[in-house]
Automatic annotation (TrEMBL):
Major localization class: cytoplasm
PANTHER family (alphabetical): ADENOSYLHOMOCYSTEINASE
Keywords from the named record: Cytoplasm, Hydrolase, NAD, One-carbon metabolism
EC number assigned by the record: 3.13.2.1
Lineage, broadest ranks: Bacteria, Pseudomonadati, Pseudomonadota, Alphaproteobacteria, Rhodobacterales
Chain positions recorded as NAD(+) binding sites: 189-191, 223, 252-259, 275, 310, 331-333, 376, 383
Protein name: Adenosylhomocysteinase
Catalysed reactions listed for this entry: S-adenosyl-L-homocysteine + H2O = L-homocysteine + adenosine
InterPro entries the UniProt entry points to: Adenosylhomocyst_ase-like_sf, Adenosylhomocysteinase-like, Ado_hCys_hydrolase_NAD-bd, NAD(P)-bd_dom_sf, S-Ado-L-homoCys_hydrolase_CS
Amino acid sequence: MAKDYIVKDIALAAFGRKELDIAETEMPGLMACRAEFGESKPLKGARIVGSLHMTIQTAVLIETLVELGADVRWASCNIFSTQDHAAAAIAEGGTPVFAIKGQSLEEHWDYLDKSFMFPEGANMILDDGGDATLYILLGARAEAGEEIIPVPQSEEEEAIKKQIAKRMKETPGWFTKTREEIQGVSEETTTGVHRLYDLHKNGQLPFPAINVNDSVTKSKFDNKYGCKESLVDGIRRATDTMMAGKVAVVMGYGDVGKGSAASLAGAGARVIVTEVDPICALQAAMDGFQVTTLDEVVGTADIFVTTTGNKDVIRIEHMRAMKDMAIVGNIGHFDNEIQVAALKNHKWTNIKEQVDMIEMPNGNRLILLSEGRLLNLGNATGHPSFVMSASFTNQVLAQIELFTKGDEYQPGVYILPKHLDEKVARLHLDRIGVKLSSLDKEQADYIGVSVDGPFKPEHYRY
Ligand code: NAI
């Protein structure tokens, strides 16, 4: 049989397997899912398309889904984030995976297309950033003769349109059929969740979606504590620059910004924050950071990191005003936070993979990380396993919920109930030696909760 995977080098599988074995010891939530559901196999019959960074941690997620009975096909959601040894281990284990670190944008959409090619058709999506969902919904629009709504980046828009046209020619009606067969989608990140709420608002979301990002045990942990470890890791692996004493600007002080600012401060950098939201600006100030505008500090800072999930945050005029050898990177989902396209006609010198030096018209040079794509996954290996275990346990519970009870949900965007959020946290306590106190009945009654939780009302913000 022809091989049903595209990886850089299948010989890397043994190395990948060793790292997977280590990761399993740091992912207690996923291992608990295997213990709880491995026998009953609630995902039997699920044919899950995964579009999420193909890392070692994701490999543990994939093998968990398979152990719960699912058939899985996988693509990465970013051209630079794949760990080739992880992809090789998954391919060798028999799960089709299409992901290479440094793949082109055309390959990105082609590989995503390939990950949908179950002989019986896909029926579930596990998404990160919304590309898999978007591919099907835009394709179905195109088949209905409707306009393709714009996607965030112009480069990306061209590539996705090309891939949609190719699939429409090869298999007429495929998008519409696939859209009808998808029972639900679970979405990993803030940016993908924005896309889902937008689609729903415009009446264009045909199936239920679970917003995994807004489980407390996802966004308040992965986005924050994950970035706290992986941001500086990415900058160091890319540049080996001395962090202590440098002036670093973090744009955005949401969950990712909070983790990123803490990461840089922990390394000894002097951190400045920019924000548009007065609440987050006040939080940054009270956490001890100077808060000002990019224009004020663009000519004097050494390191610039965007964390906003917004577009055009660092613009060409900012980059022209930066000092020689300023380091510029992004940790938000898409590369359009930085106007990288406006640098294309400048002189680029590639230093090593995912690190470029760009000469500006005034002679100053910038070090650009991962061409503006998320640098913690492009220049390093993303978040550590332990925090990804919490995120991915939410993913597994969301897939089970949508696959087994999807018909109880109307199309729309949902978050997992609080008791499951608390369960995910609970599963991670033992590994780090946390001892939980407990309430007696009288205390529980006094604060109006049950002895076993949930311990907070829905409106509580953590
Ligand atoms: P968030 O919504 O909590 O935070 C974004 C913050 O940026 C908000 O406080 C907003 O007011 C601020 N902001 C928006 N436009 C701005 C501007 N022009 N200037 C300054 N501040 C601005 O979102 P979250 O969860 O922090 O996620 C941010 C991005 O990071 C998203 O794209 C998300 O998908 C991505 N992400 C990346 C991860 C990684 O490992 N690289 C992990 C988790 C999320």
